[in-house]
């Protein structure tokens, strides 16, 4: 992608990328905070503002493979989707039901969990792995003359 030419706009987009990266990393620890959208925004910001940061985020040992899979349409592993949704509904739903009396906040938290569910189930594809790959083995060769 082409870099932004204006140094002021590039600095603003770079700053947004740094903010999104920080929020994504906080989201790894605080499971109610979404990680994926912030990572995608950060990667998009860096692709337009900083070759160095774009290279860093895609070569990061934890974030890079995840971003590359999403960018190339391979999606997220099913296990990660299940864990993410379970944590989101536990934290957001639990907070909405037991820790707040504000109806508006309850509606917002349930809407946030619902939006996360819709994105993970219907928008972000599920990364497919073959059973042989997941078990670390290769299929047995076919016997000569079979078939």
Describe the structure.
By secondary structure, the chain is an all-alpha fold. The protein has seven helices and two strands; from the N terminus they run H-H-H-H-E-H-H-E-H. The protein has two domains: 1-72, no CATH class; 75-128. Strands 1-2 form a two-stranded parallel ribbon.
The portion of residues assigned to helices is over 70%
Strand order of the largest sheet: 1-2
Q: Return the structural class.
A: mainly alpha
Helix run count = 7
The number of domains is 2
Unreliable spans: 131-147
How many strands in all? 2
Radius of gyration: 20 Å
Major beta-sheet overview: 2 strands, parallel
Residue-averaged pLDDT, rounded?
A: 84
The string of secondary-structure elements, in order, is HHHHEHHEH
Question: What is the overall silhouette?
Answer: globular
Alpha-carbon distance between the two ends: 50 Å
Relative strand content: under 5%
Q: How are the secondary structure elements laid out?
A:
Elements: H1 7-29, H2 36-49, H3 51-59, H4 63-71, E1 76-77, H5 78-99, H6 103-123, E2 126-127, H7 131-135
Parallel strand pairs: 1-2
Which labels suit this protein?
single chain, about 70% helix, disordered C terminus, mainly alpha, about 150 residues, 2 domains
């Amino acid at each position: 992608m082409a870099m932004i030419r204006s140094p002021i706009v590039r600095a603003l987009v770079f700053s947004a990328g740094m903010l999104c990266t920080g929020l994504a990393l906080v989201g790894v620890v605080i499971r109610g905070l979404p990680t994926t959208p912030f990572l995608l925004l950060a990667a998009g910001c860096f692709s337009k503002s900083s070759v160095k940061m774009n290279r860093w985020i895609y070569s990061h040992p934890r974030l890079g493979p995840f971003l590359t899979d999403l960018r190339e349409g391979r999606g997220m592993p099913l296990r990660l989707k299940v864990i993410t949704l379970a944590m989101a509904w536990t934290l957001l739903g639990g907070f909405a039901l037991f820790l707040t009396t504000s109806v508006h906040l309850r509606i917002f938290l349930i809407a946030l969990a619902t939006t996360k569910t819709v994105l993970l189930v219907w928008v972000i594809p599920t990364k497919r792995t073959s059973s042989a790959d997941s078990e670390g083995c290769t299929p047995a060769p076919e016997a000569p003359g079979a078939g």
